[in-house]
Design goal:
One of its GO terms (biological process) is lipid A biosynthetic process. Keywords: Hydrolase, Membrane, Metal-binding, Transmembrane, Transmembrane helix. Pfam families: Metallophos. It comes from Streptomyces liangshanensis. InterPro entries: Calcineurin-like_PHP, Metallo-depent_PP-like, Metallophosphoesterase_sf. The longest helix has 36 residues. The chain is elongated and about 155 Å long. It has two domains: 172 residues, no CATH class; 278 residues, Purple Acid Phosphatase, chain A, domain 2 (4-Layer Sandwich). Helix 4 packs across helix 6. The protein is of the alpha/beta class. Helix content is 36%, strand content 19%. An eight-stranded mixed β-sheet has the order 10-9-8-7-17-18-19-20, with helices on one face.
Length: 556
């Protein structure tokens, strides 16, 4: 074979060098595999290593102090709670005729702020807590305000309505604030810590802090804070206005005390003068004080108390219209009756409601008479009937005299039943003179009011009708008149045995702002009628007509 044939190049075929390497490689790998290895099966060690997670290299820091962590959590809770309160934005609620917005705000001193835009605001030191109550008076609702103008009788329920509105608004605000505080603190803690447990702990801590703040506000609540507000803005001139109002109250207090003093002094002077009629009531004489139409004038109680003390009154008879609108808010005006120390007989007037009547029935010294009911007080038997109409303002249409006559007829029927039962009535009481006139011939004396001036007459069948003026001088509404209405009351002297009228004193005092007083004594002229009895010492002094007092004694 030639030498050139041995040097021929090797072709890259499967049977060449590459093919031999491919065939030899599995054998080499087979020598490296462990015994018992099956082709296509990976060792367990290889699988385990591949499953191990890749770890990152972290730098180790020392753990924070527990106090630092607590302070940080508290800061997150407070910030989250504050953001939650801001997100709530308060509660809008109507309070009477006003639209208001109530909200809780963080504060170092607490208290209550009432914003009356654009006039300014006033602050009340109502409580000490880290929460302040903000009340914004947005506007006066024209529809609800006009309804009060058109229907003044709704004022009687305004107090309850306002209390209900404030209570409902405060309840809604409390619930929404709790949700806002807990939600805000929880959400912020979840963002900062990214751990649900820390977030729930922050929400619980926020709720605990809110409950503690509410408990602190309740414990330090000061209801008298409304008497000492701090004004700002245009309302800063309010203290001068309030001061003027307080001076009016103090001046009125001086006025009513001055009237009571005048009653005392004039009575003493009257008893000492030589021009009095010869009639002098002895200590056993029954003395009845007749008052009527007080109409919420607080000065009346000072006058009545002075008369009860000076004259030794046995019983007070009130022929109605003690109130002005008969609302529950006015009931506190009646409380001085309990301090008079004598029985107080009362009948309902057209300005007195059933609410007024029920309030008086709970007083121990008050005898409320209605539908002809009779009681014996102070040694005299008295029966009465309440006014069938309740007309405190023009919004209620009055039924007029027919309703009064029907009430008077029912009253007369009750008086007849009393007389047939052997317990005749000595004095009948009705508010309206129309009703009182129906008792003619059934009682010696009937008392009435309503018309705000005095009248005395003997009716055809012999009953004496005495109509009293306003013991309250027409009430506080009398300031609207050109001239103040005078204050009037009468003392009736009754024989203790026969219960017949022997004489009476008429007390007349100056109206609001007028400190004048006069007293005059009167004797019955008619004899032999149901309204009169024998008059002791009927002889009048020289120059004075029989049955009539001498010149009226005015105050200095």
């Amino acid at each position: 074979m030639p030498r050139d044939a041995d040097r021929s190049p090797v072709r890259a075929t499967p049977t060449g060098i590459r093919g031999r390497l491919r065939s030899a490689l599995p054998n080499r790998l087979a020598r490296l595999r462990p015994r018992g290895h099956r082709p296509g099966h990976r060792p367990a060690t290889t699988r385990t290593l591949r499953r191990l997670p890749r770890t990152r290299t972290r730098t180790l820091h020392p753990a924070p102090h527990p106090f630092t962590r607590s302070v940080a959590l508290l800061a997150v809770v407070l910030l989250g709670a504050w953001l939650g309160l801001l997100a709530v934005g308060g509660v809008r609620t109507p309070v009477g005729p006003m639209d208001t917005k109530m909200a809780l705000r963080p504060s170092l001193t607490g208290g209550t702020r009432i914003n009356v835009s654009p006039l300014g605001s006033l602050e009340l030191a109502s409580h000490t807590a880290p929460l302040r109550l903000d009340v914004d008076v947005d506007r006066l609702d024209p529809v609800r305000s006009q309804a009060l103008v058109d229907h003044p009788e709704r004022l009687s329920g305004l107090q309850e309505e306002v209390a209900h509105d404030v209570g409902a608004g405060a309840t809604e605000l409390a619930v929404r604030s709790c949700v806002a505080v807990v939600s805000g603190a929880t959400a912020l803690a979840l963002v900062v810590y990214r751990r649900p447990r820390r977030a729930l702990a922050a929400g619980g801590l926020a709720l605990t802090l809110l409950a503690a703040s509410a408990a602190g506000a309740y414990a330090t609540w000061n209801p008298k804070s409304v008497l000492e507000p701090r004004f700002s803005g245009l309302l800063s001139s309010a203290p001068q206005v309030v001061g003027s109002a307080r001076s009016i109250v103090s001046d009125f207090d001086v006025y009513q005390k001055e009237l009571a003093r005048l009653v005392t002094n004039v009575t003493k002077l009257y008893d000492a003068t030589a021009t009095l009629p010869a009639y002098q009531p002895d200590p056993t004489t029954l003395r009845v004080l007749h008052v009527s139409d007080i109409h919420l004038n607080p000065a009346a109680w000072h006058i009545i108390g002075s008369l009860v003390e000076q004259y030794g009154i046995d019983v007070v008879v009130d022929s109605g219209d003690t109130m002005d609108h008969g609302s529950a808010a006015e009931n506190g005006f009646l409380d001085p009756i309990a301090d008079l120390g004598v029985p107080y007989v009362w009948v309902r007037g057209n300005h007195d409601s059933q609410t007024t009547q029920r309030y008086l029935q709970r007083m121990r010294n008050v005898r409320v008479l209605d539908e002809g009911r009779a009681v014996t007080v102070g040694g005299v038997r008295i029966a009465g009937i309440g006014d069938p109409q309740f007309t405190p303002d023009r919004s209620v249409k009055a039924q007029g005299d027919p309703a009064e006559r029907m009430a008077g007829l029912r009253f007369a029927s009750a008086l007849r039943d009393q007389r047939q039962a052997g317990t005749p009535v000595d004095i009948a009481v009705a508010h309206e003179p129309v009703a009182a006139r129906e008792t003619d011939g059934l009682v010696p004396l009937v008392l009435a009011g309503h018309v705000h001036h005095r009248e005395t007459e003997i009716m055809p069948l012999g009953t004496r009708l005495k109509i009293e003026g306003s013991t309250g001088g027409g009430g506080l509404r009398a300031v609207q008149n050109d001239k103040p209405e005078k204050v009037r009351a009468s003392i009736l002297y009754l024989d203790r045995t026969t219960k017949r009228l022997q004489a009476w004193d008429e007390i007349t005092l100056g109206g609001l702002g007028l400190t004048t007083a006069e007293v005059s004594r009167h004797l019955p002229k008619e004899a032999g009628t149901p309204g009169t009895g024998p008059s002791p010492s009927p002889t009048a002094p020289s120059g004075a007509p029989a049955g009539r007092s001498g010149p009226t004694t005015p105050s200095p």
